[in-house]
Amino acid sequence: MREHVIVSSTTDSETTARELAAQAVEARLGACAQIVGPILSVYRWDGEVHADPEWRVEIKTAADRVPALVELIKQQHNYEVPEIIATPIEGGSAEYLEWLVQETRTG
């Protein structure tokens, strides 16, 4: 069975989240993406604790597309160190997972 992954990242605005999601899908690096937010992120940066609203982008993709997707997010992101986390999908609908792979191939 092929490996399937959810790659997630957070952004500082819904507009930026939509742009990242659209770029990933248009480039066939993700089959689909959901945007969740706003959420409140609490984190330490430059020695200070911050609490800021963010939007999470969750991109479903095939495992072999993850390196290129990570590079796209790094290039397009406006954070100095963007959150990029890849989580394996352990199971699910076989039809959906096959569609996911097909949509990450050139068509």
From TrEMBL:
<dbReference type="InterPro" id="IPR011322">
    <property type="entry name" value="N-reg_PII-like_a/b"/>
</dbReference>
<protein>
    <submittedName>
        <fullName>Divalent cation tolerance protein</fullName>
    </submittedName>
</protein>
<dbReference type="InterPro" id="IPR015867">
    <property type="entry name" value="N-reg_PII/ATP_PRibTrfase_C"/>
</dbReference>
<dbReference type="Pfam" id="PF03091">
    <property type="entry name" value="CutA1"/>
</dbReference>
<comment type="similarity">
    <text>Belongs to the CutA family.</text>
</comment>
<dbReference type="InterPro" id="IPR004323">
    <property type="entry name" value="Ion_tolerance_CutA"/>
</dbReference>
